[in-house]
Amino acid sequence: MKTVLITGCSSGYGLETARRFYTEGWNVVATMRSPRRDLLPKSERVRLISLDVAAPESIALAIEEAGPIDALVNNAGIGVVGAFEATPMSHIRKVFDTNTFGVMAMTQAVIPQFRARRSGVIVNVTSSVTLAAMPLAAAYTASKTAITGFTGSLAHELAAFNVRVKLVEPGYAPTTRFAHNTAVKVEDLIPGAYADFAAPIFAQFAAPALVTTEADVAEAVWRATNDTSGELHFPAGADAVALAQAAE
Fold it and tell me: Cα separation of 80 and 78, whole Å?
């Protein structure tokens, strides 16, 4: 029976992905900063581990506690929406610590066991902002686009050891806690000079033509984890698929 370790399982994509892998019969190591036992089925196939991907000592302890795994899903992330001019550099660094360096650190931590066994898969969850430029998301886009380049390069590097590396690119999901998983309020990042520019953008956010569901992302992660075709990109959700097709 295979084992997957998923980061950021307290809500949204990570939680739904953990539930999907459990339903498919995998052992699930669900990680979150403050584990909640009520979120996932009580089963010997589910383990909850405390993890802060921005803290090296937390990563080391989690990897040791998890033991051998067959797949890593780097899902943990924080969002930031607003004018780049008004976004504190201290917060931008926090975004990169989780979205970029956290992914890299988790990946580096599991590579040795995958390489030694000559098997394993790493799935990095990014965003559809990497598929098309979007306003009021410059810092967030930068943090996720870095992982797109990182993943593509690493896929070549680890193929020699039969280790697969994949990208899942979710679209816009109004029901997720994306905008809430941050210490900076959106309204604080829209100064008066940007009000007229931002208004129609937020109106579109409130009534999107196409959206992505948590189940869409869980399905894409499941497909990416089990894919052996060499495909790198897995857009998740109707809007992400449309953006990916338009970019072709």
Answer: 7
